[in-house]
Amino acid sequence: MLRVWVMKSRPNAAFAVLIVVLCLSGFSAHAIAQDAAAASPTAVAASQWDYVSLLVPVAAIPLIIIVIFLLVRGRAARQATLAAAQSAPPGTGVGTVTEKEDFDAFISYSSRDKEIADAVCRSLEKDGVRCWIAPRDVVMGAPFEESIMDAIGRAKAFVFVFTANSNGSVHVESELKAAWRRGIPIVPYRAEEVFYNKVLDYYIGSDHWIDASQPPFERHLAELTAVVREKLRTVARSAADDRAATGSAGKDR
To answer: I need a labelling partner for 30 at 20 to 30 A (CA). Which of 43, 52, 65, 165 fits?
Structure first.
């Protein structure tokens, strides 16, 4: 909870800094206009216009800088995540999953983030975690939506690539809801510095996300693999307990 609070406080801190800068800019522009009016008493009316004309560009400069900084920062995070996964040496990735083959994790993502999702898939499969990802594993000729739902029903873990694009995707929301209804462990992988919309917050707001929006990105991919493996072990233990309980019940009859 502390980690989430710290992450959520960053935009608030940036907004507070922006307000302070704007106020200081306004005071500076007002002081300049007053000095001009004092130097020429007949130019009081003109100084008021000078105040406005000075305030607008001075106030706009820090706002433009902050917007450019956030855009560059998000792009850099995305590119570094891709580079971290693509630079990994080839491992034991298993490739395409057929309709009847078993796999470990379903990867949910926005189609606009396919490069990030493919990088995540390569990283997981390099370490032996078998993945199902569209469109690679969609059965040829099968309805796309049916393939998605069938795959979610067979998944042991659900990896959610969380970005601004997936935050507004109704298709991703449908996939996440399907996994949630089936009780499939959901692992949010936060690839950008964004926060859940209300729908996502309802379903997975209390789940721990892997924050991959900041470097080092290799460590985040390794953390994702470790978390997914732990989820898979938990699912395997639960399945073994269920089989043992079923067998014991059968013997008692």
So the answer is: 65
- In the chain, where are the structural domains located? 2-86, 105-245
Domain 105-245 has CATH 3.30.429.10: no
pTM exceeds cut of 0.70: no
Contact indicator for 109, 166 with CB cutoff of 8 Å: yes
Reported as a single tens digit per residue, the pLDDT across 216-232 is 788 899 999 999 999 99
Separation CA 220–CA 241 (nearest Å): 32
Closest by alpha carbon to 125, among 85, 79, 161, 177?
Answer: 85
- CA nearest to 48, candidates 61, 60, 32, 24: 32
